[in-house]
Write a structure and sequence with these properties.
The chain is built from seven helices and eight strands; from the N terminus they run E-E-E-H-E-H-H-E-H-E-H-E-H-E-H. By secondary structure, the chain is of the alpha/beta class. It has one domain: 3-Layer(aba) Sandwich (Rossmann fold). The protein is 32% helix and 24% strand. It has an eight-stranded mixed beta sheet, with helices on both faces. Helix 3 packs across helix 4.
Length: 254
């Protein structure tokens, strides 16, 4: 595997981005991996490596670069912990429009890389970034062919860029993995999300992972659930394989 960390120029500066892809067999379909609220950490880099290991060019941008923050340290559930307060401040400091500007810069960068294929791009976002992955599919429908939100928050709001509304502008396939036990994205969100997607022409699936909490896919989180995490990987791999790989021509051998 090839790994590098570089600063990618954006409209508002430059985002330090971790990149991983296989050494051989390229070019590889690109995937943008949007971080969750606790910021960049080795846990996320390992998840990027897992995606890259099956044949993708994966980029993990630092979304807090405007605040000069890269890593926050260990995540804690303690409500009064200083690191948690800082995380909430940083999460509130970014908007969908800001991250879409960053996404435009990332797509432009990836388009110039020999190791990344010129075909469709995928996106995946966790927690605060589920909304970013879905909006990327809506804002860049000719580029983003697959987008996944994993226990994403703010999927149903009264804003025009709410994922349940913006999703209808996507031309690619959307996947929503929702934790059954999630005070950040309660089950009351599911019916309006499903209804809005059903009334649009977008190809989308909303799946509820029963009995698990927000954060179930993160190995270092107390909420980690191995079975649910592995299912989420299975669903991501299938989604990206369907939408990002070059279709085989009829009659060619597997």
């Amino acid at each position: 595997m090839i790994e590098q960390q570089i600063d990618i120029p954006t409209k508002d500066g430059a985002t330090t981005t971790f990149i991983c892809h296989p050494e051989r067999g390229g070019p590889h379909p690109p995937i943008i991996f949007y971080m969750d609220a606790p910021a960049i950490r080795e846990e996320l880099r390992d998840m990027v490596r897992r995606l890259a290991s099956v044949g993708y060019y994966v980029v993990l941008p630092n979304l807090y670069y405007r605040s000069g923050v890269m890593e926050l340290g260990s995540f804690t559930r303690e409500e009064d912990a200083p690191v948690r307060a800082r995380m909430m401040e940083l999460m509130a400091s970014i908007t969908i429009d800001m991250i879409m500007d960053d996404t435009a810069a990332l797509l432009a960068f990836v388009a110039g890389q020999d190791a990344a294929s010129a075909g469709p791009t995928g996106c995946v976002g966790y927690c605060m970034s589920g909304q970013f992955a879905i909006n990327a599919a809506a804002r860049f429908p000719e580029r983003v062919a697959a987008a996944a939100s994993v226990y994403g928050v703010r999927l149903v709001t009264d804003q025009a860029d709410s994922p349940h509304l913006a999703g209808e502008k996507a031309k690619g396939e959307l996947y929503f993995a929702c934790a059954e036990i999630d005070h950040w994205a309660p089950m009351e969100m599911i019916p309006p999300l499903r209804q809005a997607l059903a009334e649009s022409s977008v190809v989308a699936e909303v799946e509820v992972y029963p009995g698990v909490e927000h954060g179930f896919a993160f190995p270092q989180r107390a909420a980690y659930d191995r079975a649910a995490a592995e299912r989420h990987w299975e669903r991501l791999f299938a989604l990206f394989d369907r939408r990002l790989r070059t279709p085989r021509k009829e009659g060619t051998q597997k």
